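Service request form, structural biology core

Requester: graduate student, group of Dr. S.
Request type: structure prediction, single chain
Budget code: on file
Notes: please return the result as structure tokens.

Sequence provided:
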Amino acid sequence: MVIPTHNRPELLIERAVRTALKQTLHNIEVIVVIDGPDPATVEALAQLSDPRLRVLALPDNIGAAEARNIGIRAGKAEWIALLDDDDEWAPQKLERQLVAARASAHDQPIVVCRYFLPTPQGTHEEPPRFPYAGEAIGDYLMARDAWLSHDHILMSTILFARRELFLQVPFDPALRRHQDWDWLLRVFSFPGVGFEGVPDVLATFHFHEPRPHMCLSANWSESLAWAKSHHQSGRLSERAYVGFIVHHLSQFAANDGSAHAFWSTSRAVLSGRPRPFEVARYVATWLFPQHLRRRMHLLAESGWSQLRPVRQPDAGKA
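Core staff response, request fulfilled:
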């Protein structure tokens, strides 16, 4: 498995490394890639004596995407799992994903699991479903059927696939955002790649903690250019393209508040033949100030919490 990290030694040791080394699958290698000068993390990892732990300290900060690529290239195992330094795994995660991978009918299975998502409204079990047979991965991740349709988020912490597939389709080091989605969109265009979902909740994704996240400070124009590229290449359908702009990108463009941001995103939305609820949501994003949008989102999230499981992770689990 590969864990990129930088300047978060406490989170890294207590969450990612601790839960990685407690896996019921014992024959593993845990590769921690320190992304640039970070003496505190080097010192913290030096206190661990587990022979399965390998540390790669990079001389320069190159970003999480290329740090993952370097860790994958350094790996020796047939299968690779990815873990962010502030996330956690349940003890059985790798074992259950390996069983699913070996039983798969696909030559190149990509195995994911469900995960806990702690939020201010409670801890949810995500995602509510895995992709349907034949469903495009872009439609699964980005398209919605209604204003309040639930997100389907897959991230690096739950990805499990053959090392050769990660080598064949590396993460794009030029991207600052959307790295996981970008990899999924590109890899699913390769022959033999198929999806396997383990229904167990085997990880915890700590997204809503009050710490800096790249996706909370987006450059809307970079994200729009990224989505246009995948749309033009055929990896994003019109539904997925519009869904991405309306539900993920428009809030950042609205925060910019410029005429350029409004007209650029508006043209993109209209070019994809949006449905009425998408037009309404897009317009609402521009009409209401950010604090009111956040309040509306929290109210909607509270409503969703009545319709999906909300619980706290059991003791001993991730």
